[in-house]
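Hi Y.,

Following your request, here is the sequence exactly as I used it, all 140 residues.
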Amino acid sequence: MVSFEMNDMKKIGLGLTGFGVFFSFLGIIFFFDKGFLAMGNILFISGLMMTIGLKSTMQFFMKPKNYKGTISFGLGFLLVLIGWPVFGVILESYGFIVLFSGFWPTLAVFLQRIPVFGWIIQQPFVTSLVTRYRGRRVPV
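Below is the corresponding structure, written out as tokens. Let me know if you'd prefer a different format.
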């Protein structure tokens, strides 16, 4: 069994990833503000690199089966930076779904273990939705 050791670097990485998601959310709420969206993207990617390491991040994004997601996420990021935030977010969302679609079941199990939130997720309606889509990948 692989243990997940929580050192200071990984804690900082998780914090940066969380702030990246938060800033991206603020950017969408504030009518696709490109400053918030760009900051969210930078924080998310840097947090991911600090959490799993630079080498693992590069290997993940450079896998041949992840090329479509990597290219669309990168082009979406570039579109946000040059001032087309709506199209950039759409392209980034597609890339994010393609890249991280294999992690949804793992995320569901993690969320079920959170004290209050986990109780909501363990309700029969929600668990039936999770088990219905477990193991399926988004068609690419």
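Residues 8 and 51 are 10 Å apart (CA to CA).

Thanks again,
Q.
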